[in-house]
Amino acid sequence: PMLATGDKLVAAASKAFDVEMRFEDVFETEAKKVLHSQSHSDSSELQYILDYYSLVREGKTNYISTTAFHDVTGGHSQEPDGFFSA
Predict the structure, then answer these.
(1) Which end of the chain is more exposed for a tag (fewer CB within 10 A), N or C?
(2) DSSP assignment string, 12-29
(3) DSSP letters of 56-67?
(4) Which residues of 44-80 are buried (b: 16+ CB within 10 A; e: fewer)?
(5) What is the pLDDT of residues 49-63, one digit of tens each?
(6) Is-contact 76 1, C-beta < 8 A?
(7) Using one digit for the tens of pLDDT, what is the confidence trace for 73-86?
(8) Do residues 81 and 12 make contact, with C-beta atoms less than 8 angstroms apart?
(9) CB-CB contact of 62 with 49 (8 Å)
(10) Confidence band for 14, pLDDT divided at 50, 70 and 90
(11) pTM higher than 0.90, yes or no?
(12) pLDDT recorded at residue 65
């Protein structure tokens, strides 16, 4: 599977939906506002997402373990182009 940056994800979505989009990095405070206003998750789940987001931004963890995904599911994860086209 490919390791996709925000720019790569936006490029795949733009291509699939035939709409020009651009990636915009957000600060944690903005992410918190968006999550609270657009999510039905409880506060502990939202805090987990924000904590994970912080670790990723600091380079302390990756988004996905590709070898573990294959070992557990027996298949490969979906690439961004396929995800947005589905």
Answers:
(1) C
(2) HHHHHHT---------HH
(3) HHTTSS-S--HH
(4) eeeeeeeeeeeeeeeeeeeeeeeeeeeeeeeeeeeeb
(5) 889 888 877 878 766
(6) yes
(7) 888 778 888 888 87
(8) yes
(9) no
(10) very high
(11) no
(12) 62
Mean pLDDT estimate for the chain: 84
**How far lies 51's CA from each of 20, 30, 38, 69, in Å?**
30, 14, 18, 22
Beta carbons of 15 and 83 less than 8 angstroms apart: no
What angle, rounded to 10 degrees, do the helices at 43-57 and 28-38 form?
150
The pLDDT, as a whole number, for residue 21 is: 94
DSSP output for 29-46:
HHHHHHHHHH----HHHH
The count of other CB atoms within 10 Å of the CB of residue 21 is 13
Here the tokens at position 28 are 């944690």
- Cβ-contact 2, 9 below 8 angstroms: no
pLDDT category of residue 16 using cuts at 50, 70 and 90: very high
